[in-house]
Amino acid sequence: AVRPITAPAIRAQKGQTPIACLTAYTTPMAQVVDKHCDLVLVGDSVGMVLHGLPDTLGVTMDMIIMHGKAVRRGLKRALMVIDMPFGTYEESPEIAFRNAARLMQDTGAGAVKLEGGVAMAPTIAYLTQRAIPVMAHIGLTPQSVNTIGGYKVKGRGIEAQAILADAQAVAEAGAFAVVIEKVPDILARRITAEIDIPTIGIGASAACDGQILVVDDMLGMFAEFKPKFVKRYAELGTDADAAIARYAQEVKSRAFPSAEHIFGDAPASVVSS
Ligand code: KIV
Ligand code: NA
Fold first, then answer.
1. Distance between CA atoms of 77 and 200, rounded to whole angstroms?
2. pLDDT band at 117 (very low <50, low <70, confident <90, very high)
3. Is the pTM of this model over 0.90?
4. How many domains does the chain have?
5. Is the pLDDT of residue 119 over 70?
6. Is 183 inside a domain boundary?
């Protein structure tokens, strides 16, 4: 049997081969990602990508748990990390522990991810000291869209110092890895060189210890908008549009179903004309 990848194993990959990560929200997609990637994130991006929400704030424990269970069934090898939804961890380390434990127990995830640097370091320490591996997420943190005022690049100019402090704080608190989202290349490089845990970039730097993308973005399935950092490896949304248009047209013209898709009757048919 294949040995599953653990959070400590991801941490140990720092300075070795780059860590390939993607999100997944369903069993079939998890099966494909599992074949090729080291880490699968059940991201709260699911709210926007699959549920049509305007941002990630409306994602609930029940939603992420349902997707987490589906993803778990598709994994054999990759480490499964699940996002802590907005409002489930910020208030206190104790509340964070209760919700993180529930996420892991209900879904079988091997780690949780939460957004925040210096402010969340005590919570990260509390969880990691109590058997819950934590992946941190700094730079652009989408759950803070209302206080940031948009999804712009973080860490330009003097703000770089604060992001560097965030990176150091989460590493010292015991996070096994840190996602760095939408910061200048030079800052992500510096952080990667200065901290001893893997940096997982998204709109960050090729120098990061790993990369992550939202799977629906890189497959061209989520077409609402395309951030600069998304590289489209397929155009499945366009393919789906063409396929569905053809299907509807063939139904209307009675071209579908044809002989190969329909069943013949038994020789001594009881159906008479
Ligand atoms: O929710 C998500 O998909 C994420 C990744 C983009 C890092 O947090
Ligand atoms: Na997220």
1. 19
2. very high
3. yes
4. 1
5. yes
6. yes
> ipTM strictly over 0.95?
yes
Span from the CA of 238 to the centroid of ligand 2 (angstroms): 25
Predicted confidence (pLDDT) at residue 245 exceeds the cutoff of 70:
yes
What kind and span of H or E run contains 163? helix 159-173
Largest alpha-carbon pair distance within the chain?
Answer: 84
Sign of CA dihedral 153, 157, 121, 21: positive
Ligand 1 atom closest to 56 (CA): 1
What's the mean per-residue pLDDT of the chain? 96
Q: 201: which strand partners?
A: 180, 211
By annotation, the residues acting in catalysis are: 181
Pocket of ligand 1 (CB under 6 A): 23, 41, 43-45, 83, 137, 179, 202, 212, 214
What's the CATH code of the domain at 124?
A: 3.20.20.60
What letter represents residue 135's amino acid? Answer: M
Name the pLDDT band for 246 (thresholds 50, 70, 90).
Answer: very high
For residue 260, is it within any domain?
no
